[in-house]
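Build the 3D complex.
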Amino acid sequence: MWNTAIPDALWCTDEHPEQIEHLVREVLDQDVVAIDTETTGLSVWGDLPVYWSMAWGQDRRVCMPIQTLRHFKPAFAEEGKRWVFANAKFDMHMLANVGVEFAGECIDTQVMHALLYEEEPHGLKEMAKHVLGWRWSDFFDAFPLLLVPDMSKPAKMLKGGGLSQPNRRETLRELWARVEQNHLSRLVDYASNDAYGTLRIYEKLLKELHTTPIHSLYSTWLPTMEALFFHTEAPFTKVLYTCERNGVYVDRDYLQTLREPMEAEKDRLAREARTLTGSMTFNINSDDQMREYLFKKCGLAPLTYTKGGKTGDKKPSVDKGCLEHYQHENRMAAIALRFSKLDHMIGTYIDGMDEHVDLKGRIHCRFNQDVARTGRLSASNPNMQNVPKPDSDEFKLRRAFCATPNHSLLVNDYEQLEMRLLACATVTDQNPAGAKEMIQIFLDEKDIHMGNAAMVYGPLYEKQHGWRMGYDDLVNAKKTDKKVKAGELPESALDQHCQLALFARNAIKSVGFGLNYGMKEKKLARQLGISEQEAIAIIDAYLDTYPAVSEFYAAAIEETRGHGFSFSILGRRRYHPSINSYNKYDRWSDERKAVNMAIQGSAADLVRMAMIFIHRAGLDKKLGCRMLLQVHDELMFECPNETIKEAQSIIGPIMQNAFKMCPDPRAGDLAVPLTISSGIGHDWSSAK
DNA sequence: GGTCAAAGCGCG
DNA sequence: AAAGCGCGCTTTGACC
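Done.
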């Protein structure tokens, strides 16, 4: 229960119109109102609100049945109002499910909290404890005697969508009805607590945002963390709400046709496994049976052992590494690998996606604004950001996500966004030229990895082989398009040049990406199949070619050592408590994260601004063009065929100029253009 | 019967 | 002894 004194809560129903009228007038007078809902469940597309609560001023809190909402529509329509939530998008969806849209600003205290305390949990209860020092009960503490048998654990409420549990919604409705009938005052108290606490958290965090120092490149536009929040995060919440609400259409029939060959192959594999073992009950998924077969029956030598857990009995491991090792000499190992792969694909992408399809055939994933420490989004229920891409997916899952009739998908991708931002970041007041050769590669619109390879390996190969590898050699070599490792280089001289060029591009690409993640020589050596000495030589050559890149990494770490935080371009902070640790592994870990924050965090900043500006362009109303998905450096839209070309001509430039459109004198400073690729098609596969 | 963490794998 | 960042989902194994 609460450990602090709070004002009495008001219960108000349609049966008292004069009381409601009074409340409406009061709410219309407020600039800031906190809202919370109690619902039939957690599915944004399948559930409905049952009660809603508001809090405003110093002591007002009220709980009402959801039917009273309609009286407050004039307040919802006010553009100047600020509505405060905890987990805003969820409540916005619930209220939208009964016809309410907010014209005003929608603020999420969890996102505020994430901006200030990225390292802390952002749940309402946790925030109340952390920000206010309050402890309060959750539903199951508040109503310990009421629980229906199968609802005895909160997790029951969390799991599953509506369709898979047809009785769940009724159950919860009934539960609420019982609570209202028998324990009204506790219901009102409990329900309005969240709105009241949310408002108090908002006030406290608002002050903290105002006083917390910011390190933003655009310090005129974003002089405080408060500005960062209100200019970037707050509007973003509404953009994401719109994306979630739109959802992406799924061709369920296509998804089903994918399942058949996968299940058929699984059946074949299972049959073969049963034949091999001679056991009709052999289960490929059972590690114990697999151990028995591989190590006892086939006599294979165990490679590693399981940890043994608490009982400590270590068993021979039948994990992926083991199966891969034996896949060529033992048919069962190959069967198990393939079987697992198919199982994973079906479970995650066929069944997993199908569970989330709504009555209109669309999937509404959640875009989490307060999860990734770098400021990226994460996506869940389902995760639409890890759908296999067609070039590595034999089943072409992405074709299932498509446009509705007379519409097409527009998919825009930033090209090498993080490498471009790295190049931009090398330009500083001390070094205005930055990594000028790298910048030139981008300005010439060349492939950055080929350009880097020519820069780094050109002089090196000239010394070693008397042959100067240029950019064009790399372009020609790429046409053979074969991954190559150092040990596999062929004999003939002509081939050798080609293979060397390919290796050079592949290696330098790994170095470029890897260093942005803080990779060291050991990992690079393993990845490229070369010695650690060679790996060190490549890294050194790269950093010697671009001293400004080296300085950027050093500066990012040095700055973080100074105040314990790393920063993205716009000023999002990430806390690194071990950056000065005497334990070098802890220290290195934070150094890697600090370097990555500067790049990945800034990329997230850019895409966030692009989405906000695109949202502001009002393409939905003007052209019927709806934003559906963000996959970190990629945006997907659905648009009527007649207007999609026009939408494309508007969206592309906004994405490319998202930083430049920020109202700050330094906003035009970027040293390289941020280009995009753009595609239109019927589905996610053909639009790229 | 259920929870939890780790492993494995998908994406950027 | 430790060495690439950021995520989410499913399955598994250990445990209660």
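Confidence is low (pLDDT under 50) at residues 147-167 of chain A.
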